Amino acid sequence: MLDKRENVQKFLASWLRGGPLAGAVGLAVDCLWEASAPLSPLVGSAEIEAGFLVPLRRALTGLHRRDEIFIGAMNRRHERGFWCAAVTHYVGNFTAPLWGIAPSHHVAFLRAGEFYRVQDGRIVQARIILDLPDLMRQAGRLPFPFSYGLETLFPGPATHDGVCPQAGDGEGSLDIVEAMLGDLHRFDPQTLGSAGQTGKDGYWADDMLWYGPAGIGSNFRWDGFVKDHRAPFLRAFPDRKGGNHYCRIGDGSYAAVSGWPSMTMTFQGDYLGVKADGRPLTLRVMDFYRCQDGKIAENWVFLDYVDLFAQMGVDLLSEES
């Protein structure tokens, strides 16, 4: 018998290809579907199909999803209930424009972070971050003047067990992540270091891998993470406050957290070619973690940079950007 996670995963795969909305899992009549910019919130199956699925099907011929992580558990945060979370790619031949992005006429892997609240066998709420800047990169348009780290396809977990994991302590995995987040928030403004992150008793494995969105890219080990992401981000947004999460779940060796928005901050240092002007900003965030031997081994990160840069006065999806 399929468990809740597997039912939701199978429904999403079938639905994407045009399968039925009814079955063991479906969409609630008043399902709220929120995706990253430039999409507006959608309510109900008709709006969701027209505003989300139809554009994807038109743009990506042979559209299907390739899940790298798919987990589910009860939410620790105030929005209680059972939630699923996924790291996936929407895959197809990119043959028609998608939300302002011209097609490449080659295969494309549009990566996405997803959170779904499930109640009485129905998805009642969804939040999705699509890495559209990375899709632009794949199509030969560079949304940023440079990238801090390696731009690459998001790999699946090194252990190849991220889809509906069958073993591991989900609560323990989430405990590690929550402790890390609590200490990560505080940092030395000179060294940019935070207590407890590395070393024998630290939260991160020595050979940690961090996979970031377009503009940041991926990096290896703590030093690489600091150089390619943490240092430029903290110099640009030194007063950032994060952790405003609506969902935190743990399943097996995995944990996932998300805020909509998660961060508030002011723009105090230049970032990815944009001049700082001190304006207040917010940032939607999704983080997925794999833990091993009491430490975080891998971290997949989704940031709604189309929305963030719009707040900064930059339209990443425009032809002029």
TrEMBL record:
Coiled-coil segments: none
SUPFAM superfamilies on file: NTF2-like (SSF54427)
Signal peptide: none
Pfam families tied to this protein: SnoaL
Superkingdom of source: Bacteria
PANTHER family in the cross-refs: ESTER CYCLASE, POLYKETIDE CYCLASE SNOAL-LIKE DOMAIN
Protein name as annotated: Ester cyclase
